[in-house]
Structure formats: structure tokens, C-alpha cells
Automatic annotation (TrEMBL):
Any single GO CC term annotated in Swiss-Prot or TrEMBL for this entry: cytoplasm
Top-level taxon in the UniProt lineage: Bacteria
Catalytic activity: Release of N-terminal proline from a peptide
Gene3D superfamilies xref list: alpha/beta hydrolase
InterPro entries recorded: AB_hydrolase_1, AB_hydrolase_fold, Peptidase_S33, Pro_iminopeptidase
EC number: 3.4.11.5
First-listed, main subcellular location of the protein, grouped into a coarse class: cytoplasm
Gene Ontology BP annotations: proteolysis
Transmembrane intervals: none
Active site: S106, D258, H288
Subcellular location: Cytoplasm
Protein name in UniProt: Proline iminopeptidase
Length: 313
């Protein structure tokens, strides 16, 4: 029987700028404090992710700005990289936790890597999967006709069918932004579905799309586009600058068949900007996220091992 951490409490934390963040705590109040960083950006935390954690953890499930149960849903004003990073430190101080562990996937892994470089003494240990490198190459891989589009040509044609005359990623983003705000509800729905369907194809080919309600789907698509069209607010430049400052033991698990965040981009980054604290492992036949059972099991093993090691200190 799968262990699921028990619910402790939930709060909405006012972090300013009109944003209130939803924070739910689970597990052992005296256990190893672990902050879960969801991806997207904008995806929010999911209940199934609690199965990752063992019985010696205090699990902190934080919905980032505009995401999940945070308020207001889908808000992109004052929603940027620096704000998200400052929010994490506000949460740590609010909880009065001297130092914690960080875990997360995709953009959540990006966010965690940045936080651990900015606040190295506040991170005990960390595990990430499907690390997203927010560079121009990373964006082009995702959205231009020169990257993942070559592997999934038919699906890319379906993705761009609503933006057939775009010669650049910037034009593609502009077209989708206008589509998301179209006065006709059905048209908005088509654009949102096209955006999320392409993402789903890359995350795990042949998988069924998750059943999000309309408001959550629109929120996710709009926040993802907001970050992508602003080049993730300088995240790549900051990653290059501070990754060498990371002190905590860090494990990055990357799926061999991760078509959202391909291994070559991650490996090139770590070779040039990584440090001795970072360990990297490719999961053979693994995909991008936790919907892949192989990746899920590898992450479970890594998180349980991390928590046990912290408990022994």
C-alpha cells in the first residue's frame, strides 16, 4: 500500500503585489522539511505528488503565483522570476525553517537551482528531474520548427495550425497571446488546447492529456506563454552566474527520452557552469515527468534516500 503523508494545515500567504500563495503542509511536523516546486510555470501542485514522500518528511506544497489554489488564478501581473524566488525565501522565513530540502521538476527544478545558488546556506539537499534550461536554445527546441518539431512533425503542424504564417518564435508567441484573449470563447479554447496538447506530446508521447478544468487550463497556458515570451525573465543568465555557488548535495535526474528538456542541453550546461555539488544521472528510457512510471520510481528512491541521509545528520 502506498504511503501518503497526512494533512497538517493550509494557509494563504500574502506576498504582496495582490498575490496570495497557497501553502499546504503534510506529513510529520517534526520531519525533514521539503519544499516541493511545481513546474509549468503555472502548473500548481497535484495531490498525486504526495506519493513521492516517505513518513519522515514535512512536505511543503506551495502553489506559485497565479497557480493552483493561489490567488488570483492565472494572474500574470507582478508574476516574474525574481518575484517567485523572493516568495520562496518569504515562505521559509514565515515558517521559521533555518534550512530545508528542495525538490521539483521541469521549471520547478530551474527555480530550485536558482534559489539554491542565491541562498546556498539555506538548502540542505535537493533532488530535481527534467531540469529545464531556459536559454534561447531551450526555447527554440520547444517552440521553433528546428527543435522537437523535427521529431514530432505532425504534432507540431497541429500545434501551429492556428499560427500558420509565423516565421519566428516571437511571432508564434504573439499569435497565441492574441488567441488566448480572443473575444470568442471557442477560439480561446482552441488556442489553449493547442498549446497544452503540444506540451503533452513532448512530456510523454502517446499519453493521454490530463483533465484540467477550463480555468486551470487557461491559467497554465497563459503563465507559460508569459514566461516564455519574456525569455523567463533572465533565468538563464542568472543560472550561469550562480550555479557554481550551490553547496547542497544536488541530484539531477534527466530522462533519456525527455523531449521537453533534452539531455544534451542539460549536459552542456552542467559541463560549462556546474559544480562539484551537482550529480547528474540519465534515466534510461525515461521521459520528462512523473507520469512516466520509471521516472516516478527513480524520484521516489532519490527522495527517500535524501530524507534518510538528512535525518542521520
Amino acid at each position: 500500500m502506498t504511503y501518503l503523508p497526512t494533512f497538517i494545515r493550509r494557509d494563504w500567504l500574502d506576498v504582496g503585489d495582490g498575490h496570495q500563495l497557497h501553502l499546504a503542509q503534510y506529513g510529520d511536523p517534526d520531519g525533514v522539511p521539503i519544499l516541493y516546486l511545481h513546474g509549468g510555470p503555472g502548473a500548481g501542485c497535484m495531490g498525486g505528488e504526495l506519493a513521492l514522500f516517505g513518513d519522515n518528511c514535512r512536505v511543503l506544497m506551495l502553489d506559485q503565483r497565479g497557480s493552483g489554489r493561489s490567488k488570483p488564478l492565472g494572474e500574470i501581473n507582478s508574476n516574474n522570476l525574481l518575484a517567485l524566488l523572493k516568495d520562496l525565501e518569504k515562505v521559509r522565513l514565515w515558517l521559521d525553517i533555518p534550512a530545508w530540502c528542495l525538490v521539483g521538476g521541469s521549471f520547478g527544478a530551474t527555480l530550485g537551482m536558482l534559489y539554491s545558488g542565491l541562498y546556498p546556506e539555506k538548502v540542505l539537499s535537493q533532488v530535481y528531474w527534467g531540469l529545464f534550461i531556459p536559454s534561447e536554445d531551450g526555447t527554440n527546441w520547444l517552440y521553433s520548427h528546428k527543435g522537437a518539431a523535427k521529431l514530432f512533425a505532425d504534432e507540431y503542424l497541429a500545434f501551429t495550425a492556428l499560427a500558420p504564417f509565423c516565421s519566428s518564435v516571437e511571432q508564434l508567441f504573439t499569435t497565441f497571446r492574441l488567441g488566448f484573449k480572443h473575444k470568442d470563447a471557442d477560439t480561446r479554447h482552441h488556442y489553449i488546447c493547442a498549446w497544452l496538447a503540444w506540451e503533452s506530446v513532448l512530456a510523454m508521447p502517446a499519453s493521454q492529456r490530463s483533465n484540467r478544468d477550463a480555468a486551470v487550463s487557461r491559467s497554465l497556458a497563459e503563465i507559460e506563454l508569459h514566461y516564455a515570451s519574456h525569455q523567463y525573465f533572465g533565468a538563464y543568465s542568472l543560472m550561469r552566474e550562480i550555479s557554481a555557488r550551490i553547496q547542497a548535495p544536488t541530484l539531477i535526474l534527466q530522462g533519456e527520452m525527455d523531449w521537453v528538456c533534452p539531455t544534451q542541453l542539460v549536459e552542456n550546461f552542467l559541463i560549462e557552469f556546474g559544480c562539484d555539488s551537482i550529480n547528474y544521472s540519465v534515466i534510461k528510457s525515461g521521459y520528462h515527468g512523473l507520469a512516466d512510471d520509471k521516472m516516478f520510481q527513480e524520484v521516489v528512491y532519490a527522495l527517500r534516500k535524501m530524507a534518510d541521509n538528512i535525518k542521520e545528520i
